[in-house]
Design goal:
154 residues, two-stranded antiparallel ribbon, globular
């Protein structure tokens, strides 16, 4: 079995925005982490699983702030006796299961959709095709089929 030890994806969007995704197993001295950073013309967001209860927010013209999740946040009553207590791997699944149950009970839920998963798969597929083509740019078509189209037999 082969594993990509290091992958860097460069992205450009129809609105002229650009992006980068870096995935690596070879960052010496770094522990396992899931992190993201969004940098924009009006501000930025930063998250790291090393401090999963925090989201760093910086808006243009304002002082950066750290938002700490706690009991008042969605699903906070399931796990946070006090604000700032770390969020663990199991907690993510507690929230997921609660949202699934809420959905099936007809409650409004903000959850990723099959369309979101489809878009992620399209991006991974385009990255693989680009790598096989020597790093050439590869377009990603983001038309997402309706959920009922995915569940019907072929």
């Amino acid at each position: 079995m082969t594993v990509d030890d290091h992958t860097a994806l460069l992205m450009k969007f129809d609105n002229d925005a650009t992006g980068q995704i870096l995935v690596t197993w070879v960052a010496s001295g770094e522990s396992t982490d899931v992190a993201f950073e969004v940098l924009g013309t009006k501000g930025s967001l930063r998250f790291t699983w090393r401090r999963p209860e925090e989201l760093h927010v910086a808006r243009l013209g304002q002082h950066p702030q750290t938002v700490v999740i706690g009991r008042d946040d969605p699903d906070g009553d399931l796990r946070f006796p006090v604000a700032g207590l770390g969020l663990g791997y199991v907690d993510a699944f507690v929230s997921l299961h609660k949202r699934v149950v809420d959905h099936h009970l007809g409650r409004a839920v903000a959850c990723p959709t099959i369309g979101d998963a489809w878009r992620c798969a399209l991006i991974v597929d385009a990255a693989q095709q680009s790598a096989e083509a020597g790093g050439r740019w590869h377009d990603v078509l983001v038309d997402v089929p309706r959920a009922q189209d995915l569940s019907e037999p072929a």
